[in-house]
Every structure is written in C-alpha cells, then in structure tokens.
Amino acid sequence: MKGRDIISAFDFAREDFMRLFNEAKICEKKRTLRIAEDKMAITVFLEPSTRTRLSFTAAMLKIGGKVMDFGGIEASALMKGESFEDTIRMIDGYDPDVIIIRHKVEGSAKMAADIAEHPVINGGDGMHEHPTQALTDLYTMYKTFGKIDGLRVALLGDLKHGRTLSSLSYALSMFNDVKLYCIAPPILQMRPEVVEKIKDKMPCKFYNSLEELDEEIDVLYVTRIQKERFTDLQEYERVKGSYIVSPTLLSKLKKIPIVMHPLPRVNEITTDVDAMPQAKYFEQATNGMYVRMALLAEVMGLKIPAE
Ligand code: NCD
C-alpha cells in the first residue's frame, strides 16, 4: 500500500485486510520493530480524540519512527482564520512520510489528500468514515473467531451519526456470508447512502431495539450517541439512554455474543459487563495499535520482518 491515501474502508480490499492482520500479529508478538527510524508522521487532530491519536502515535514510535503533533486547534493559526487548505499545504511542506488527520467536516480527509503530496490517513471525518477503526474492529473479530466470513454482526446505537459504523459495514461487505443487523431507535438508523453501498453485497436487517432481535449473533457492536453531531438537542434528549447493554440484557439473547465498542463509552454498556469474557472493547483498543503499526509500515513502504 506504499504511498497510498487511506480515506475510506473501500480503500482496502479483502486481501489487504488479511495481509494486515498477519502483519499485525507479527507486530503484536515482536512488540517493537526498528524499521521506521528515518520516518516522520504528523498527526493533525482537529476534533477530540484519545485512542486514534494515541494509538497512531504509539504505533509509529513502536516501529521506530517519529511523530510530530499539530496540537490543539486553539493553539494553532486556524484560530487566526487560516484555512484548512493552507494548513495542510504547509504541513505537507515539512516533508512528512505520512499525515494522519481527524476533522469534524465530512470529506476533509479527501480534501487534504488531494492537496498533500504525502500519504494521508483518515482518522475520522465528521460522520462519514473512520477506516482504521474498521481495520481495528475486523482484526478483533478475526482474532476471536479466526475468520470474518460467515459472522453475524449486530450494530447497536447511533448508526446515523457514527462514522465507525459506516466504515465497519463497508469493510464487512467485502467478506462472504456476513449478515448485518442494524439496531437503533428509528431516528438513529443508518443513513440511506450508507445502506445503498452495502445492501447488494450483504444481507441487512433493521430493528428498533435489541429485544426485538430474534436470531443468534456472534458480535454485538455498541456505539455511543454522538451528541456533538445533533443539530436539534431536543432530539438528543429524546433518544439518550434509549439502549443500555447489561449482563441481564445479554443473557436474554439466544447466544451471548462478544461485545465490541470503538470507545469512548458513555453509559451504553454498564461497567459490570467489563468482567464478562465476551467484553472485547479494551482489547479492541489495544488491537488498534498493532493494526496501525502494520498499516503505517505498509503506507511508508516498509517491510515487517517475517516471524
Ligand atoms: C470513535 C470516533 O471518534 O468516531 N472513537 C474512536 O475513534 N475510537 C467513536 C466515538 O467517538 O463515539
């Protein structure tokens, strides 16, 4: 994937996922590699982030590279009215080997990639996409089940505004016999343009609540309600707290699935789920670092040494 921009989950093919999983496994075993000693990444996170920013930083450091962080929006010239375009042009001029961007506006990662000569990785653009979270999610499923083909995956939460869900759905649609269950209060169901891109590749069923689900699932992927993306806060108040996953609720399902969440969690999974062997969300966050080690190496044209 040398020199490639990663803007959408569709920028990966099934073979890319499988290769990256194998490389991530090697990274996990070796813990650190010295393959990127002359490389520099610049992270530009113009929207709050904990895991994506830190896991990209940790991943770059663990393969031996360096990271320069743009810092918070409030400390930058963006506050003086500098445009996003000029900011990217300037960052690109520092000759980084890769630029990782998060921005609240949909399409901003693509815009940055069009301006920058160096590869751009999308760390989340508005409610649009978050391709490296999809990579993390699939790796977690692959580690748990040894495969992605044939999995039955339920998405629960704010499917309308959650960018991890669109990228995950696109990624799952590249595998065989995957079944998708979209569970959300009606006003938070998946956007039609997302459904449009997957519906011919993978069967999708829609539900208003987890209690309505009448089939066995392997994965329950929960997300928080994305309060910051609501234009009408009264609408947020109406749906807030409308689903809370607890051990009792899980025990009512036909089979207890693994529970995943991109994090941060607000209140949609009770903390007593954490001790269940099916709770995978903290492991998922750690996995994010290993897949990003593999991805950064590939984008920078570096080889992960075989085991
Ligand atoms: C997600 C995001 O930023 O889209 N977090 C993450 O990257 N792990 C999910 C969220 O903010 O709810």
Q: Give the tally of structural domains.
A: 2
User: What is the CATH architecture term of the largest domain?
Assistant: 3-Layer(aba) Sandwich
For CATH, the homologous superfamily of the largest domain is named as Aspartate/ornithine carbamoyltransferase
Q: Tally the helices: what do you get?
A: 10
Which regions have little confidence, pLDDT < 50, spanning 5+ residues? none
Choose one word for the global shape.
Answer: globular
User: Order of helices and strands, N to C?
Assistant: HEHEHEHEHEHEHEEHHEH
Biggest beta sheet attributes: 5 strands, parallel
User: What small molecules are bound in this structure?
Assistant: N-carbamoyl-L-aspartate
Question: What would you say this structure looks like, in words?
Answer:
- With 307 residues, the chain is α/β, with parallel strands linked by helices.
- It has ten helices and nine strands.
- It folds into two domains: 9-129 and 287-299, Rossmann fold; 131-284, Rossmann fold.
- The strands form two sheets. It has a five-stranded parallel beta sheet with strand order 7-6-5-8-9, with no helix packed on it. Strands 2-1-3-4 form a four-stranded parallel beta sheet.
- It binds N-carbamoyl-L-aspartate (NCD).
- The site of N-carbamoyl-L-aspartate has 12 residues, from helix 2 and helix 6.
